[in-house]
Amino acid sequence: MDQNTECTVYVGNLDPQVSKELLYELFVQVAPVSRIRYPKDKVKQEHQGFAFVELFSEADCDFAIKSLNNTVSLFGKVLKVRRTLENAKNSAPVFARAKLFVKNLDSTIDAVQLQKLFGKFGPLAKPPQLFTLKDGALRCAYVYFTTFRHSDEALEKLNNQIVANQIISIDYAFKEGKAGEKHGDPVERLLDEEAQKHGVVKLT
C-alpha cells in the first residue's frame, strides 16, 4: 500500500520513549489518522527519532502542522511537524541535507553553469548559491542535491577537477548552528533513505 505523500506529515525530534500509540493519540486529537510509519533501527530495534503520519486530506495536514509544530513537547523534546512535500507543484524535498560546499570557482562561473554541471549527476533541490570568502578572493558555492546518492557521485567525480581553468575543491558543507558537524553523517543518510522509500523525494 503506497503512502499518499500529499496527505502525510513528517514528525521529527521524537524522543525514543515516544510510542506509536502515543503518536496516534496525539494526532487523532487534531485530525483523523489513516496510518503511521515509525521506522526502527534494524539492529537495535529502536525508533530513529522521526515518523510519517498519513492523514485523510491536505487540510488535515495543514491543521495538524498549525496545531502541533513547535507547540507540543514529549519527554522534554519539542515536536517538529511539517509537510513531506512542499506542495503538489514542487517535487523538491523540504529537507536539502545533501549540501555540498564548492570552492575555488573561476570568476566566469555563474549559478546557471553550476546547475548544468552538477545537474548531470541528479536533480538539485534548489539553485546553487554563489558567494565569496577571504574578502572576495575565494569564490565558492553551495550545491543542494535531493539525495546523497547523487551528491556522493558529484563529489567523487568533480572534486579536484579543473573547471574553467581552476581546480575546484568539493566537500560536504558544515551544518548551520552546529560547529564542526558536516552534512552527510549516518543519521542524515538514514533519513534520506527513509524519505526515498516513502516518496518524500524523487530520484529522477
From TrEMBL:
Pfam families linked: RRM_1 (PF00076)
Cellular localisation: Nucleus
Cellular component terms per the entry's GO annotation: U2 snRNP; U2-type prespliceosome
Molecular function terms from GO: RNA binding
SUPFAM superfamilies per UniProt: RNA-binding domain, RBD (SSF54928)
Transmembrane segments: none
GO process terms (BP): mRNA splicing, via spliceosome
Similarity comment: family membership: Belongs to the SF3B4 family.
Keywords for this protein: Nucleus, Repeat, RNA-binding
Domain annotation RRM: ranges: 7-86, 98-175
Keyword Transferase in annotation: no
Phylogenetic lineage: Eukaryota, Fungi, Dikarya, Ascomycota, Saccharomycotina
UniProt keyword annotation of Repeat present: yes
Protein name listed in UniProt: ABL059Wp
